[in-house]
Amino acid sequence: MSAALATSASSVRDFPKFGLVSSRIRLDGSKCGMMRRNFVSGGIPFSVCCSLLTADPVQGLSLVTLLVTMLRVYSRLLPSIARYTLYCSPPFLSFWTQVIVTKAWILLLTADPVQGMDRLPFRSNGYNFWTWKGHKIHFVEQGMGRPVVLIHGFGASAFHWRYNIPELAKKYKVYALDLLGFGWSEKAIIEYDATVWKDQVSDFLKEIVKEPAILVGNSLGGFAALMTAAESAQHVRGVVLLNSAGQFENPSEQPKNNEEETVLQKFVFNTLKEFIQRIILGFLFWQAKQPARVEKVLKSVYINASNVDNYLVESITKPAEDPNAGEVYYRLMTRFMSNQSKYTLNSILSKLSCPLLLIWGDLDPWVGPAKAARIKEFYPNTTVVNLQAGHCPHDEVPELVNEALLNWLSSL
């Protein structure tokens, strides 16, 4: 049975909170006696619904597609409609109303937005953990074969590779790593710098993977992958960048003046500056971790936002519940983000020696295709695959990314 047709016990238990089976409805026969018997045997319409879907999935799903569309529009009215029907409709009509409503909600709750693709199950407690320099690091491990390590972008986690891990794991041993300070890894109170994640990935290759691997990174994860490959060439067979972070050197940029700070700057200006930054960034973090805000930002960088769902939003908001998450956000924004120019793509690419693949979402509002072209120009041992997608092509068009990845991997 496909994932779209299978429903978990938790989904069934959740039906009352959607208003389909209201605890406020007293089924004592006072309104209509025959209705009570139909509704109490709620397992019957549920079984009939599953039978219809499994007996003829094609016709069943085409019928339900229309119903699902209608239910999305009238979702707010469904509880009232269901209650009204249970009270007032004839028994036969009520029975089939239950079948239709139940059938539609099963699809809404369990349907996989990317048809025909396996998806990594979401686990609120994470998968595997590794202790690195006293910090707990989360990672996912699946499959057998040559190793491929996936590294997420800023604010994301290993779950952002939900549609890539199962497919790649059919031919390769796949690891998806949460960088320190993100996802299910520890929210360590340290001074964050790009070298922290470079060292983390390098040690992960040595201690967990234990053989040369392909590094695949999106956004910030791409930059971490590049730095690791440049500094630990013996552990990396190739690098794949998806709309990677990182800046080329700007010749017109003036070097910072490193003169010693005056007493006034050190004890007055800097203290006041930090106080104001903490207030502003504290508010911005509170705002940024709200599910509605996360969804809005994701939809602004996904050209096709159909995969911006509850799974993705929760994979971002849940780690933000950590008590240290706010402080980590403050340190990232005031230390790391303001010092990115310390490590330029020029200097990193000049040390690179392995094959490089760029899978680029050309419609990315943050990192356009010109950057991919410049990387290719600077480092000729580069293959470029351009996609009509936004900043996170691996999740927006996973089937195209998986195909490009597998084709390139098979050529190494």
List descriptors:
412 residues, disordered N terminus, 8-stranded mixed beta sheet, 48% helix, alpha/beta
Describe the structure.
The chain has 412 residues and is of the alpha/beta class. It contains 17 helices and eight strands. The protein has helices at 9-13, 33-40, 43-55, 57-73, 78-88, 91-110, 165-168, 194-209, 220-231, 263-288, 291-301, 310-317, 325-336, 345-349, 369-378, 393-396, 398-411; strands at residues 128-132, 135-142, 147-151, 173-177, 213-218, 236-242, 356-361, 382-387. An eight-stranded mixed β-sheet has the order 1-2-4-3-5-6-7-8, with helices on both faces. Strand 5, helix 9 and strand 6 (236-242) form a beta-alpha-beta unit. Helix 2 packs parallel to helix 6 and helix 8 packs across helix 9. The longest helix is centred in the last third of the chain and has 26 residues, at 263-288. The two termini are 36 Å apart. The model is unreliable at 1-97 and 99-111 (pLDDT under 50).
